[in-house]
Design brief:
Elements (H helix, E strand, L loop, with lengths): L1 H17 L7 E2 L7 H14 L5 H13 L3 E2 L1 H14 L9 H24 L2
Parallel strand pairs: 1-2
Helix pairs in contact: 1-2, 2-3, 3-5, 4-5
């Protein structure tokens, strides 16, 4: 069980190392495992790591929160088009408002994940 959790988190970490930080709405198809499986693996490892590894725990917590960035591929495409339009480099103005709604949903989910991690032992 612990070995599987370690492998899942390691696979997820490889994905995180390839994505641009601060980007909202990454395609869920980039994830090597389902979101719930990654969440479970992260919490499993957090329960097993002793107090002597605060950096590792913090990294796991950040990874847990960052999972909210991964959304359905269609939504990720809409967000990308909306952000391009808002920045002036795209012409799909109709996608700007729906993209903002998705981004706001991502932010709320990230806030929930932060609260979950605060409450986690």
């Amino acid at each position: 069980m612990l070995g599987m959790a370690t492998r899942i988190v390691s696979d997820y970490g490889k994905v995180l190392s390839r994505v641009e930080p601060g980007v909202y709405g990454l395609p869920q198809s980039l994830l090597p495992h389902p979101r719930e499986k990654i969440r479970y693996a992260i919490t499993t490892l957090l329960k097993q790591i002793g107090p002597g590894h605060p950096e590792v725990k913090e990294g796991l917590r950040h990874g847990y929160v960052y999972l909210a960035q991964f959304i359905a591929d269609e939504e990720a495409d809409l967000v990308a088009r909306g952000q391009a339009s808002a920045s002036g480099s795209g012409s799909d103005e109709a996608s700007a408002e729906p993209a903002m709604r998705i981004i706001n949903r991502i932010k709320l989910e990230m806030e929930r994940a932060v609260e979950e991690m605060r409450a986690f032992p």
